[in-house]
């Protein structure tokens, strides 16, 4: 990463967002992180910023991570997308793969976050 990347974290669990952000900052202190608790809030943030990567939870109120990924893929086709979820159903993984969304399993840990950040390279 030559200049600090911008990452959008979307998860309805504030604790998950905080943990993910803390691990990301420890691995890459210069990251610019945007956080949203649901899909609608995430889409609103895109009015002012264009993240290099969006990290999405699957199960959220209103709009699932896959539904948000579909909308992001249409509006920002070059944005890298990662689904970070405890939902490991094969149907979810297939749908993510069809959208070009990288799939990562919770729990959040340094190895998983390092693998997600590798998408920026």
Automatic annotation (TrEMBL):
One BP annotation, GO: phosphorelay signal transduction system
InterPro entries: Bact_response_regulator, CheY-like_superfamily, Sig_transdc_resp-reg_receiver
PROSITE patterns: RESPONSE_REGULATORY (PS50110)
Record's keyword terms, sorted: Phosphoprotein
CDD domains according to UniProt: REC
Keyword Isomerase: no
Pfam families: Response_reg
Modified residues (4-aspartylphosphate): 57
Record-linked Gene3D superfamilies: 3.40.50.2300
SMART domains the record matches: REC (SM00448)
Domain (Response regulatory) ranges: 6-121
Protein name: Response regulator
Organism: Thauera aminoaromatica
């Amino acid at each position: 990463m030559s200049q600090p990347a911008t990452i959008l974290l979307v998860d309805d669990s504030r604790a998950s967002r905080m943990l993910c952000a803390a691990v990301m900052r420890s691995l890459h202190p210069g990251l610019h992180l945007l956080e949203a608790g649901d899909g609608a809030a995430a889409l609103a943030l895109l009015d002012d910023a264009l993240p290099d990567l969006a990290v999405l939870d699957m199960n959220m109120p209103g709009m699932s991570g896959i539904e948000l990924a579909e909308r992001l893929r249409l509006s920002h086709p070059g944005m890298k997308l990662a689904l970070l979820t405890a939902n490991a159903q094969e149907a979810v993984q297939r749908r993510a793969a069809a959208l070009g969304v990288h799939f990562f399993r919770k729990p959040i840990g340094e190895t998983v976050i390092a693998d997600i950040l590798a998408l920026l390279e």
